[in-house]
Structure formats: C-alpha cells, structure tokens
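Below is one such record:
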Amino acid sequence: MKFTKEKTLTIVTYAIAAMFLMSGGMKFMAPPEMVENFARWGFAQWFIYVVGAVEVGAAVLLALPATRVVGALILCVEMTGIAQVVLKKTDM
C-alpha cells in the first residue's frame, strides 16, 4: 500500500483527534489529581467539564474532513489558553 501525503496527514489527524477524545473523556471522570490541578490554577471544579466538552467536541470536528479546520482552530485556541495558565500559575 502506497502512502500519499494526503493519507499520511489523514492518519496523523485521526491520531490527534483520538488523543483529544481520550483527554476530554478523562476530564469527565474528574480524577483527583486533575481536580487538584484545576483548583491550584484557580478554576472551579465545573470548569473541568467545560474543557472536556471543548476537547471532545473539537476532536469530533477534527476527525470529520468537512469541519477539520474549525476543529483545529478550536484546539489551537484551547491549547494556547492551557499553555498560558500552566506557565503563569505553575511554580517552576
């Protein structure tokens, strides 16, 4: 089977979508470590579910070719926000 650039990008996109689907799904379980981190960063516990819903929704959009760009943009915005929170509120 010959892999073209398009097939390779599709496989990578599905892998990224699966990663965010799992990450968002984990947030719905609200493990104690995650609850502690969100509290330490100054967020209420309900915000874990908001972030999880955004990740799951964006992962679905990313997996669908017609909405792939929208899903990628949502994840870029989310990841930028997460990076800012971690850099500003984590003791390094």
